[in-house]
Design goal:
50% helix; disordered N terminus; 8-stranded antiparallel β-sheet
């Protein structure tokens, strides 16, 4: 009885069951042979497929991570641009506000300067009233006074500047100190012939003089300037301070009315 082949087959089966790499058995009998082999190639192929899938998955995850990183970077750049743009807008608005504030400050300073100047002029005019300044100037240079005004001289002092048309038809400029009524200086000014002729025509006979007009307007405030105007058949334009009120004084009768506009 031949048992060897059976034992060999059982041994091969045991080897295959145990996961051996290769098992072989020769089944003898009648000079024929048979072989069985197990190389484990099935398990290795699955492992390679698993590794391949794992590698592909890892690459896909890395690509997705890179995409997310790129999107996050773009979002951050966009946020930065937005913030920078907002910063520029804020800076522009701030600059505009600064410009507006500077303009308002300049206007306020100018108004304050003008108010202080008008106050100082009125104070000087109260020391020596316009009629007295005119009288002092005419005593120095006889003629017809055409204007008188408190203003700064070349040295920055507040003085009465009086313009007089003298007997020879020349226009004379006389400075009078408001502190003591003394004449500080006089000089001849260039005058337009037509203006001289008009002044002579207006100040004839009993026409209201500059001194009389100043006394009439003094009831309205401190006279800081008086000037002969040719319009409306002539009148005296008078300013009182420190509020810069304007008055008109008629050449006939010295009537005082508000304003000196045409």
């Amino acid at each position: 009885m031949k048992r060897k082949p059976v034992f060999a087959a059982l041994a091969a089966a045991v080897v295959l069951a145990a996961g051996g790499g290769v098992a072989a058995a020769s089944l003898g009998g009648d000079g024929g042979t048979s072989a069985a082999s197990g190389t484990g190639t099935g398990a290795t192929t699955h492992e390679r497929a698993g590794l391949t899938r794992t590698g592909a998955d890892d690459t896909a995850r890395e690509d997705r991570d890179d995409d997310r990183d790129d999107r996050d970077s773009d979002d951050r750049d966009s946020d930065d641009d937005t913030r920078h743009g907002a910063g520029r807008d804020d800076a522009a608005r701030h600059d505009d506000t600064d410009d507006t504030d500077d303009g308002q400050d300049d206007d306020a300073r100018e108004r304050a300067h003008d108010a202080a100047e008008h106050k100082a002029e009125a104070a000087a005019a109260r020391k020596l009233a316009a009629p007295d300044a005119l009288a002092a100037a005419l005593a120095h240079t006889p003629g017809r006074a055409l204007s008188a005004e408190i203003d700064d001289d070349q040295d920055g002092r507040l003085v009465w500047e009086v313009e007089i048309l003298d007997g020879s038809g020349k226009l004379r400029h006389v400075d009078v100190s408001p502190s003591n009524g003394k004449v500080l200086g006089a000089h001849t000014e260039r005058a337009d012939a037509d203006d001289v002729r008009a002044a002579k025509d207006l100040l004839t006979g009993d026409a209201t003089s500059a001194a009389k007009a100043a006394r009439a307007a003094a009831a309205k405030g401190t006279v800081v300037s008086i000037d002969l105007e040719e319009e409306r058949n002539g009148y005296w334009s008078v300013e009182t301070g420190p509020g810069e009120a304007e008055w008109s004084v008629a050449l006939d009768g010295a009537k005082v009315t508000r304003g000196s506009d045409d």
